[in-house]
Amino acid sequence: MSIFPGFFPRPLRRFARTGKRRLFKIDEKTSLLGYYHFNEGAKPTTPTLLLLHGLEGSSESSHVLGIGYKACMNGFNVVRLNMRNCGGSIDYAETLYHAGLHADPLKVVEILRAEHPASKFILAGYSLGGNLLLNSALAASEGDPVAGDSLMAVCAVSPSIDLSAAVDAIERPENKLYQNWFLRTMKQKIMEKAKQQRRDFDIKSIAGIKSIREFDDKFTAPDGGYGSAERYYSEASSRDRLVNMKIPCLIIASKDDPLVPFESFATLNISNDMIELLITNEGGHGGFFQHSHEEEDHFDQFWAENRVVAYIKEVSSRAGI
Questions:
Q1: Using an 8 Å Cβ cutoff, are 162 and 239 in contact?
Q2: Where in the chain is the domain with CATH 3.40.50.1820?
Q3: Domain 4-162+238-318: homologous superfamily in CATH
Q4: pLDDT tens digit at each of 321 positions of the chain
Q5: How far is the C-alpha of 27 from the C-alpha of 151, rounded, in Å?
Q6: For residue 187, which of 167, 207, 214 has the smallest C-alpha distance?
Q7: What is the spatial distance between Cα 268 and Cα 162, in angstroms, rounded to a whole number?
Q8: Sign of the alpha-carbon torsion through 228, 234, 238, 239
């Protein structure tokens, strides 16, 4: 369920080509690469959906394209955003991406809000990107002046809300395939950054790194200003702050997720009407593939994608948009 849906053939390439390539300047040393799909005939008040991928994914990830296509077909504007150094954007940021960079999406919202002041914004992400966007929404809920009142909702599918627990899961022997896959491309990014001669990374030690935790302790955490992996996991996890959410929020998780333990959600003590938690028995990590094809709103066999688009339609309707 976790692997198959990403390889299921879908005609999404044509939709991907309709996106307008754009760099969003975060600061003097950082720009994020995104693709903007502005819906022709959209009203000034048409909401904009900002989509974010997971660990070592990109704006070309199948779930990002799937949700983006369905949202566009249902009248929303869409931005497919890459985290720092992802999706071919290695030249646009000196620092590495991590789950605590919640200000990055909010800066993109600020830029777009200046261009479309009547529009509201919705955030949606998978896995690491889901946790990051929950952090963005929490920052807005807790009074971040960048976000203001621009955010209308946030959706997270299989979000790694407890980073330490997620890393524990991926280090299990049965998940070696996943860990090796992620480590391969994570190490490649470090090597590419070193070749740019803009960063002094200790690449001599990279061959000896055998786990995500070791990589984060050596590279991600120090680069992000956390010092250690454990401090990074503690401070960049959204789990313990979700009770503070003041923006409509949809979280989708599965009991059989091999990478994000269900215990992260089962033990949540959330008395917050803003949060809707959808739990399934099966779904894997971000997969949620169903045999039946939903025959409305351009929906298909990808159940979680369909639920995200249905949710943002519902939130927009409640807001009178």
A1: yes
A2: 4-162+238-318
A3: Alpha/Beta hydrolase fold, catalytic domain (3.40.50.1820)
A4: 666 666 676 888 899 999 999 999 999 999 999 999 998 878 899 999 999 999 999 999 999 999 999 999 999 999 999 999 999 999 999 999 999 999 999 999 999 999 999 999 999 999 999 999 999 999 998 876 656 578 999 999 999 999 999 999 999 999 999 999 999 999 999 999 888 766 778 888 898 999 999 999 999 999 999 999 999 999 999 999 999 999 999 999 999 999 999 999 987 767 788 999 999 999 999 999 987 878 788 898 999 999 999 999 999 999 888
A5: 22
A6: 207
A7: 11
A8: positive
The pTM of the whole model exceeds 0.85:
yes
